[in-house]
């Protein structure tokens, strides 16, 4: 069943370092044959080692096309309720919730616009791709798909027991982030929880991608905490996962 799931992140995020590795290896072999200088060979050797290590880190550590694990068991301990996924993309975060909390129902919301196409291409419509992943995981009965902007959520106040957003809110500009966090707080019921996961300042990322993937300038945990508090949410837990900062907050 899960073999049909395709989260659709571009191949180079998982395998791009292999291309660098192949080229570096070719140069290393050529250099040995032609007896290039020691300094040049050391440099080529360093690139070879870096690309091999970076490949293992990205493919097996970040694993962007793999399943996403709930970073904290404190999210929706009741195991039930209505959850909103803000910026659901191809369904990785929706499946994360539904697999860890199978008694919930999830509204998978995405703008399905430019940012979606940049991440996942334009061959298939966003809704179609998301639905096909939900079906492949056998959870489509527990989810609905909604096109919409997380900065102007099409829901009444106090509609959801939980809101999640993974690697999505950090694609907005600073004003958009504040607006979206305010919207998350508005649609949460009192006592409801907001689980946010964003790309963070992480040595894994610096090692593998250098300056690429710096969403929102990878703001600090303290910065995100202040934004959540300004939106009226109380931070109850925070932590890190590879390349990820997660914060669990609660609406008082
Ligand atoms: C990197 S993807 C993350 C998708 C998914 N949550 C995951 O973890 O794989 C970011 C998603 O945010 C969506 N997005 C960006 N701006 C948005 C907005 N203002 N409202 C709703 N979705 C938005 C994009 O369309 C894209 O699907």
Structure description:
The chain has 252 residues and is an alpha/beta fold. It has 2 domains: 2-62; 80-250, Vaccinia Virus protein VP39 (Rossmann fold, 3-Layer(aba) Sandwich). Helix content is 42%, strand content 21%. It is built from 8 helices and 7 strands, in the order ααβαβααββαβααββ. The protein has helices spanning 11-34, 38-62, 92-100, 114-120, 126-136, 174-187, 203-209, 221-230, and strands spanning 80-86, 103-110, 143-147, 160-166, 188-199, 234-241, 244-250. 36% of the residues are buried. The protein binds S-adenosylmethionine.
Q: What topology emerges from the helices and strands here?
A:
Layout (H helix, E strand, L loop, with lengths): L10 H24 L3 H25 L17 E7 L5 H9 L2 E8 L3 H7 L5 H11 L6 E5 L12 E7 L7 H14 E12 L3 H7 L11 H10 L3 E8 L2 E7 L2
Parallel strand pairs: 1-2, 1-4, 2-3, 4-5
Antiparallel strand pairs: 5-7, 6-7
Helix pairs in contact: 1-2, 2-7
The site of S-adenosylmethionine (SAM) has 17 residues, from α3 and α4.
Number of separate strands? 7
| C-alpha-based Rg, rounded | 20 Å
Structural class: alpha/beta
Strand proportion: 15-25%
CATH architecture of the largest domain: 3-Layer(aba) Sandwich
Largest sheet: 7 strands, mixed
The shape, in one word, is: elongated
Let me know the CATH homologous superfamily of the largest domain.
Answer: Vaccinia Virus protein VP39
């Amino acid at each position: 069943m899960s073999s049909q799931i395709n989260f659709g992140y571009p191949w180079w995020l998982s395998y791009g370092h292999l291309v660098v590795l192949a080229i570096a290896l070719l140069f290393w072999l050529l250099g040995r044959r032609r007896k290039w200088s020691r300094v040049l060979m050391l440099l080529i050797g360093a690139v070879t080692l870096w690309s091999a290590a970076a490949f293992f880190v990205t493919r097996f550590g970040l694993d962007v096309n793999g399943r996403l694990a709930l970073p904290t068991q404190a999210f929706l301990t009741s195991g039930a309720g209505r959850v909103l996924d803000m910026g659901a993309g191809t369904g990785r975060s929706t499946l994360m919730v539904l697999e860890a909390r199978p008694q919930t129902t999830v509204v998978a919301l995405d703008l399905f616009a430019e940012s979606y196409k940049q991440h996942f291409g334009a061959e298939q419509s966003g809704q179609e791709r998301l639905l096909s992943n939900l079906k492949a995981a056998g959870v489509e009965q527990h989810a609905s798909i909604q096109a919409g902007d997380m900065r102007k959520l099409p829901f009444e106040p106090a509609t959801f027991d939980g809101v999640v957003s993974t690697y999505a809110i950090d694609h907005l500009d600073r004003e958009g982030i504040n607006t979206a966090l305010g919207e998350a707080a508005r649609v949460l019921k009192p006592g409801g929880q907001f689980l946010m996961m964003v790309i963070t300042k992480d040595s894994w990322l610096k090692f593998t991608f250098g300056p690429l993937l710096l969403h929102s300038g990878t703001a600090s945990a303290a910065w995100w905490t202040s934004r959540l508090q300004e939106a009226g949410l109380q931070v109850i837990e925070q932590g890190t996962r590879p390349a990820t900062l997660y914060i669990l907050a609660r609406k008082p």
